[in-house]
Amino acid sequence: MRPVTHNTKVKFVEPPQGHAGEGFFAMKMSEAVGLARSNSIWPLPFATSCCGIEFMATAAAHYDLSRFGSERMAFTPRQCDVMMVMGTISKKMAPVVRQVYLQMAEPRWVMAVGACASSGGIFDTYSVLQGIDQIIPVDVYVPGCPPRPEAILDGFMRIQDLVKEESLRRRHSDKYKELLNSYGIQ
Ligand code: SF4
């Protein structure tokens, strides 16, 4: 049995930028909102095949997605912030993916987990959608067939980075409206 050692080098998270003084800390509103949002993202798992099994491992005790404040998963789009599409999406299923995305409230983010969701994967066939970005905008792509839970967590942390940095005005910007318009979304 290994001896128990106590690591006294505790690493603290970097504080957000701001102005500190005696008894106060001031920061930008957008950074405070970003900090709160990025550590309480509620995922909507849209799992259709094998990549979904890796996601189950990601959410289970060993990898523990709840460490990121994201243990609260839901299949009700109006309560979720990030849609995680995991698995092969057939063309028949594509309108369902899009409908779920449309039912999510802004701000919303999308992760394409694995080769199938990102590009159709090995299924270059008439019946499989060659990447969900053909129907909805994607923020983060996670490579792999399937990606390991570490890769899914890494993709999740990239989403956290985007959430943290996003300006409060982005969703009202012309550029964002243009992006949605290019997908035929008003
Ligand atoms: S990327 Fe590979 S593991 Fe993931 S759903 Fe497609 S075939 Fe399955």
Topology:
Layout: E1 19-21, E2 24-26, H1 29-38, E3 43-47, H2 50-59, E4 82-86, H3 94-103, E5 109-113, H4 114-119, E6 140-142, H5 149-165, H6 174-182
Parallel strand pairs: 3-4, 4-5, 5-6
Antiparallel strand pairs: 1-2
Helix pairs in contact: 1-5, 2-5
Question: Any descriptors?
Answer:
binds iron/sulfur cluster; globular; alpha/beta; 186 residues; two-stranded antiparallel ribbon; Rossmann fold
Lateral arrangement of strands in the main beta sheet: 3-4-5-6
CATH class categorisation: Alpha Beta
Q: Which CATH architecture?
A: 3-Layer(aba) Sandwich
Record field, number of beta strands: 6
Helix count, per DSSP?
6
Report the major sheet: 4 strands, parallel
The assigned structural class equals alpha/beta
SSE topology string: EEHEHEHEHEHH
Roughly what fraction of the amino acids lie in strands?
A: 5-15%
Q: Mean pLDDT score, rounded?
A: 92
- Helix residue percentage: 25-40%
Cofactors and ligands = iron/sulfur cluster
C-alpha geometry:
globular
Radius of gyration: 19 Å
The third-level CATH topology is Rossmann fold
Determine the N-to-C terminus distance. 62 Å
